[in-house]
Amino acid sequence: MSTGTRTMPLPWTNLYGLARTLVALGTAGTLAFSSAETLFRPVATVGPHPPCDGFAAASVFCFAPAGEESYTGLAVLKWACVLVLLVVASGWRPRLLAVPHLYVNFSVFTAIAIGDGGDQIALVLSLLLTLPALGDGRRWHWQRPDEEELSRSRRAWAVLGITSVIVLRLQMSVLYFQAAVAKLPHAEWHDGTAMWYWGNSLHFGAPPWMSPAVNAVVSTSWGVAALTWLPLVVEMLLCASLLLPQRVRWHVMWAGLFFHLMIAVVMGLWSFALAMSGGVVLLCAPLGAHLALRDRDRSTSAEEEAALPRPGGKEAVPV
């Protein structure tokens, strides 16, 4: 590449694919493991679900027949959405499934009565992943992107895709900043007792098989303080991750993924945890990073090896 040529990372890597998979699995889990009667039950002061007025009328669930058979129709549409999401999660033909993925997440967000935050996060992330996916001509989003010279239209899609990923990273950074700062005015987060209340909550407390272990920790002063303050530290590190060296950012990514895994296991918020994990991967991985899954059997110079980001390579295109 000649001196002075500017390069831009390609958005179409398997780490971006992993993010799509995690977001799709989160929404699919909400639909698959909840009955239609639970998802679409009436809500006090809000009314029946799905609400089919205004822009919410565009939801796929508003096509269900009204009357006594409405739950049957909603169940059929629910499983159709699960099927679409599972195909998205498999990584097949991102370009073809970009808009269906967004539409399903829009339909879920506007229609269900049991939102836990995961549906909103999934909608925002799937919206920001639409542009990269529309430009992704691969058969599977796990494949390494084509390194050959891109056509003018492909370069335009690459610019749009990587710009959307950058916006997604900024969105995740702001989200974690807000999550951390919003806790600070509350005394329970100051004195380190907040997780005692969460651990004993009837709605979000630990499941019965885990309650003895959680209670043993939150019943001690050092244990409950650690569980209260560590999430604040992780959230602030994730907020500031774009300012950190990449070698540090990998550790922050693993801390964030473990943090959300614990939220899923202890509080049962699996859809929220999966969607957020998809965002964490794109927030902390370098732009254009591709997880190395193939054998390292080809010769690589020491300088080239040292330049490769971890855990994978990095694709770029001249612009």
Automatic annotation (TrEMBL):
Membrane-related topology note: Multi-pass membrane protein
GO cellular component: endomembrane system
Key words of the record: Membrane, Transmembrane, Transmembrane helix
Regions that span the bilayer: 71-89, 96-114, 120-135, 156-177, 222-244, 251-270
Alphabetized InterPro entries for the sequence: HTTM-like (IPR011020), HTTM_dom (IPR053934), Sporulation_SdpB (IPR023894), Sporulation_signal_mat (IPR052964)
Pfam families, sorted: HTTM (PF05090)
The protein's name: HTTM domain-containing protein
